[in-house]
Amino acid sequence: MSGVSKKKIKKHMSVKDLDKRIKKLEKDVKVLNRLHFIKACYSGMSIKEAAKLTGVSYSNAYVWFNRWNEEGPEGIIPKYAGGRPSYLTDDEKLELKELLEKEDVLTTEIVHKIIKDNFGVDYTFKQVRIIIKNLGYSYSKPYPINVESDSQEVEIFKKNSHSTT
Q1: Would you say 97 and 108 are in contact if contact means Cβ atoms under 8 Å apart?
Q2: pLDDT digits (tens), the chain, 165 positions
Q3: I need a labelling partner for 51 at 20 to 30 A (CA). Which of 25, 105, 109, 160 fits?
Q4: Cα(69)–Cα(76) distance, rounded to whole angstroms?
């Protein structure tokens, strides 16, 4: 394949730590942009002019301006609320996982019905797919296994197929 690097990258940190660092720096960039806005206001620009200069809407700039005046530098640090809490508690999600383990075949529709019948929550199919993924399930397609296969022949096939690659 062309375009694929043969060199290996040194992993100086885990992917989880890398994600945390990216999040922090993204937050820092937002603070930096807000500080540029405040500096423009310090230089005598109106809120509207400073907003245009920094590329933000007038309404956001007005919020930043008011937060700066009321809270100082702490006021321009982004405040993330974390989103709406889940309708299912952590214990209910564990119970759901146990219910799903009893099922032979899982589809989004089946999981949706299980959640609705057992917990009284009517999630969208998109949210059901997110829950399924968060519970550790994948979207793999099940393939039938011939139970009449000779296990010794299967092992021979596996060994032969691996030796040719």
Answers
A1: no
A2: 556 667 888 888 888 888 888 888 888 898 999 999 999 999 999 999 999 999 999 999 999 999 999 999 999 888 777 778 889 998 999 999 999 988 888 889 999 999 999 999 999 999 999 999 888 887 776 666 666 666 677 677 777 766 554
A3: 25
A4: 10
